[in-house]
Amino acid sequence: MAHSGSIDKISLLQSRIEQAIRVCELYFGQDLPQKQIAQRLAMSTASVCRLLRYARQEGLVKFTISPPLNRGDISDLERDLEEFGIHKIIVAGKTVNSVAEATARYFEDSNSSGSTVVLDGGWTVSCFVDSLTPGMFERMTLVPICADPPSYAVAAQDSVSRLALKYPEKVTCAKQPHLSSKLLAPLHKKIQRRARHANFIVLGVGPWEKGFTAYEFAKCLGLQPRSLHASYPSVVGLCGYCPLDSEGSLIRIRELENKMPRALTFLDIQRMSKSSCCQVVIAAASERKIAVLLAAIKARLCNTLIVDEALGSALVKTIRRS
After folding, report:
1. Where are the domains of the chain?
2. Taking Cα atoms as reference points, which of 90, 15, 80 lies closest to residue 47?
3. Structural domain 2-57, CATH architecture
4. Shortest CA distance to 136 belongs to which of 109, 116, 174?
5. CB count, 10 Å around CB of 34?
6. Which of 6, 190, 273, 285 could form a disulfide with 96 if both were Cys (CB 3.0 to 4.6 A apart)?
7. Which CATH number applies to 71-321?
8. Entry pTM
């Protein structure tokens, strides 16, 4: 009986640790409020609060305090990244929501009615859509960057559909078929022509690591992320659904290309980033994205960068070391 009791205690402890880690991932990693976490995990808000306190006490989460970047740091960074075609850098707060808000305000200041907008998939882009002010524009054309699975929670198509609800006046929302075939090819080409005339593109970056959008979405395509990772070990992450190595070179993953009709290719994004007629924004938060962000910068996949303080600081340190 004593032996059984010890096993039960160990099991309960393990369960509590797992719960605390999951709560921390949602609270600190995804910036969700405690009430929303409680609803998602079917527990009380008080339980979420206790698990966060437990995680801090047990060292499951650790904090570092970093001073914010000053204007001089940002100016130096802008100067250093000019050679990669980046003309504007915005460092916004400490969370995904801060970056999303800054991207939304930049979009509203830079955009106009009648424009064509292309959206990437991912959590940050989804939060950007949520942060936009309804009804500011009309006669817009909205295009998902690729036909990712409709069942995927933060798919590009899903973000485009929600953006259309923000601007209901005479909006054209391109719905790209997920399947590829000769019959659908004319429709895909029509959508590609629209996307290639975009005025504004919002991209995310995702490390090729478990728990991040870029890695997890492969499951929704019926693929095994772990197998893909083993088959393409040089991939550090994705930007605009383009797999990149650390030097910013495109890695062609045939398994993905065969299942994801694209509105914009790697070369399209590069070309449009060089155009004065198109704002190509990478919006990203978390210093864990530094490797793939550097790869996207080297690949010249954006002309505007909006990041949180942690990622901005990591970028400054990396540039100074090089």
Report:
1. 2-57, 71-321
2. 15
3. Orthogonal Bundle (1.10)
4. 109
5. 18
6. 285
7. 3.40.50.1360
8. 0.76
